[in-house]
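Fill in residues.
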């Protein structure tokens, strides 16, 4: 693939023109539009920009960070500038994670098309690279280390390169590797000599030892030897010869190895590094449809829309009582229609918080019906009064409306609920997923006295029947008590709780909350006092069976790592089935006091080594990382724990720990496991390097590579840690 990339760079007309460079306008806002010169670098992996054609250039973005390319018509910002800039000449670079989009306007439609086609091609090529092909890209290290760009690397340049690679190495040992690779004895490394030097540098002694322990001759693994490894160490008890052959064919680089049905050391390492077999089966900001796009493309299945009366009879969306800008309701609905099912076919919930007049509610109903069309669920599935909620499978590619609903017993007037949050999520099989975009402002307990005094002054809103009729399975109701809900409410109704109230109920009536969540949906949202858009740990609410646990999705950190990790399971479809004891309406489970029959387990994790860990703190330019690994368990309160290895001094390239950590878990069905790599600092707080979070139930035993993610959830490939995982039934003592 690397050779294919190099071939395209020299033959594809679009890529050749991109390497020459072109002027384009970089657009950040209506008032910020600057001319910049963009050029694709010769490696085909990065785009640089400069203020002038021959000016000093700096990196703009890496191709591996690009998620997709959109044309100008899909950019909300560029559409607002159509009087100044032609949409046909514009396009948007969309990045993975939380990085802002890059809007560019070329000098002509043809030049815009050149960049769009070229970037699409490069993204496809980079995305299709496997682990070994990505390692081939590290030949770029040669260019970085070759300071005088003469195509040769002296030992002095090698020493500089080692520092760039984040590794401190004994000078004599480094020189011995240099001499061994210098087969021409020229005193410099060229071409394949540097490749051999790099291979020696990246040699995995711990993997070699494992390979030789199963190989009779130390040179290869026969089919039977590889099958023994899969069954004994990887705990693949049902592995067949056919599957082992498939893995040899997939990961063995040599044709002779495939032909003879054996695995070489390179093929063995390629298998261990493969992602498919690693360890898995604000109150102030800018409202934008881009927030909805990002959430839906990340798998979010529930989208909140806070709607108010707008000018010219058109409802607008913004977060009330906050400093967010207005966007048209119909634009939000169109965005949901376009992106709802790009990531998952399973149903999306459109949660409406309506503050509109009767007339604009009618406009809302019309937009929902006309724009969503067949996607909108406007009647029960069988046309009769339901007796239970339909499954996500039955609602595939359907959009459901959540909100207030009129009944024969209700008056046409209702009191407005407190403002709800942005993009939210759920947890159970009935209706499930994650995440929110903005935060909310429900009064906390300390604000209740003022609320009671002002209750009579609350404004009344007349609910429009046309909008009410679109609420089928998700009628919003206020929560008073569990007893009241059981007596007066139905399975198709949903109550909302502030995080403070939900946590209090878990402590005071945890088992009642669990039983409540077996027949009615619950939604929990962040406190309005979180003015910094911080998050709470969703695990505590999942432990009680709460289906929708809303998050400030724009805020990276431990809490979002847990949320993202939880919803990686089940194919990332946005729906996760709760454990049996959270679906049984007679359940005795109490999240604060878990007792049998829940089956306890012991987890042993041997943290073996790390590979090519990045140095993310740019303020410590002269230092090399001192990495340590922290393993955290999140679940019921008694299971929450953390342990860490010692730090390895001055080696982020191939650190070795060889330490075993032991965890005892009472309720493994609710546990989440988080691997975190930190840069030890004795003067201040340790610096974050990377993490990976996954549910206990998704862990595979045996030797696995944990491929690290950044704070924003972006792959840090090839950075990884190599571990051995063993799960035993019951609570055992410490083991070495």
């Amino acid at each position: 693939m690397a050779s294919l990339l190099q071939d395209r760079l020299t033959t594809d007309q679009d890529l050749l023109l991109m390497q020459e460079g072109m002027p384009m306008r970089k657009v950040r806002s209506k008032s910020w539009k600057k001319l910049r010169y963009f050029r694709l670098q010769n490696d085909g992996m990065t785009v640089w920009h400069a203020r002038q054609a021959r000016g000093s250039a700096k990196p703009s973005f890496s191709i591996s960070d690009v998620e997709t390319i959109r044309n100008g018509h899909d950019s909300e910002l560029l559409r607002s500038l159509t009087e100044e800039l032609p949409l046909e000449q514009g396009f948007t670079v969309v990045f993975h994670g939380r990085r802002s989009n890059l809007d560019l306007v070329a000098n002509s439609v043809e030049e815009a098309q050149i960049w769009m086609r070229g970037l699409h091609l490069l993204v496809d090529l980079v995305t299709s690279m496997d682990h070994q092909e990505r390692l081939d890209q590290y030949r770029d290290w040669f260019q970085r280390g070759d300071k005088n760009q003469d195509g040769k690397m002296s030992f002095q340049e090698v020493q500089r390169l080692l520092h760039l690679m984040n590794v401190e190495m004994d000078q004599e040992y480094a020189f011995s590797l240099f001499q061994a690779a210098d087969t021409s004895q020229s005193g410099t490394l060229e071409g394949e000599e540097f490749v051999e030097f790099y291979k020696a540098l990246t040699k995995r002694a711990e993997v070699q030892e494992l390979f030789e322990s199963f190989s009779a001759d130390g040179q290869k693994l026969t089919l039977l030897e590889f099958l023994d490894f899969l069954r004994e160490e990887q705990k693949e008890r049902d592995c067949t010869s056919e599957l082992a052959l498939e893995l040899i064919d997939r990961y063995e680089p040599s044709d002779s190895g495939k032909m003879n049905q054996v695995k070489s050391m390179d093929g063995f390492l390629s298998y261990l590094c493969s992602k498919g077999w690693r360890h898995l089966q604000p109150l102030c900001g800018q409202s934008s449809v881009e927030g909805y796009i990002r959430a839906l493309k990340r798998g979010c299945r529930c989208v909140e829309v806070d709607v108010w009366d707008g000018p010219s009879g058109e409802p607008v969306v913004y977060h009330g009582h906050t400093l967010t800008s207005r966007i048209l309701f119909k634009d939000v609905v169109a965005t949901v229609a376009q992106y709802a099912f790009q990531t998952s076919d399973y149903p999306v919930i459109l949660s409406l918080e309506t503050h509109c007049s009767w007339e604009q509610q009618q406009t809302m109903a019309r937009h929902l019906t006309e724009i969503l069309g067949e996607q909108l669920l406007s009647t029960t599935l069988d046309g009769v009064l339901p007796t239970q909620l339909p499954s996500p499978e039955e609602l595939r590619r359907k959009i459901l409306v959540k909100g207030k609903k009129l009944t024969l017993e209700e008056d046409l007037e209702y009191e407005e609920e407190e403002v709800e949050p942005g993009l939210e999520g759920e947890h159970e099989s009935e209706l499930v997923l994650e995440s929110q975009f903005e935060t909310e402002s429900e009064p906390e307990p300390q604000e209740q006295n003022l609320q009671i005094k002002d209750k009579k002054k609350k404004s009344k809103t007349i609910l429009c029947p046309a909008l009410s009729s679109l609420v089928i399975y998700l009628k919003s109701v206020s929560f008073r008590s569990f007893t009241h809900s059981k007596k007066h409410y139905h399975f198709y109704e949903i109550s909302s709780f502030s995080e403070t109230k939900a946590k209090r109920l878990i402590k005071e009536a945890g088992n009642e909350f669990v039983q409540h969540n077996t027949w009615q949906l619950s939604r929990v949202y962040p406190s309005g006092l979180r003015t910094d858009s911080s998050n709470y740990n969703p695990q505590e609410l999942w432990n009680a069976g709460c289906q929708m646990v809303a998050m400030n999705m724009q805020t990276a950190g431990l809490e979002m790592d847990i949320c993202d990790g939880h919803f990686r399971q089940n194919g990332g479809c946005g729906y996760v089935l709760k454990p049996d004891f959270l679906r049984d309406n007679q359940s005795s489970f109490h999240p604060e006091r878990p007792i049998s029959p829940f089956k306890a387990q012991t987890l042993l994790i041997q943290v073996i080594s790390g590979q090519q860990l990045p140095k993310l703190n740019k303020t410590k330019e002269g230092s090399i990382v001192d990495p340590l690994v922290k393993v955290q368990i999140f679940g019921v309160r008694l299971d929450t724990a953390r342990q860490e290895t010692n730090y390895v001094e001055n080696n982020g390239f191939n650190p070795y720990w060889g330490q075993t950590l032991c965890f005892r878990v009472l309720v493994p069905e609710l546990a989440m496991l988080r691997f975190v790599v930190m840069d030890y600092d004795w003067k201040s707080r340790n610096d974050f390097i990377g993490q990976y979070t996954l549910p206990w139930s998704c862990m595979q035993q045996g030797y696995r590579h944990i491929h690290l993610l950044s704070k924003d959830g972006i792959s840090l490939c090839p950075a990884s840690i190599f571990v051995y995982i063993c799960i035993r039934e019951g609570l055992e003592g410490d083991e070495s």
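The first helix runs from residue 2 to 11.
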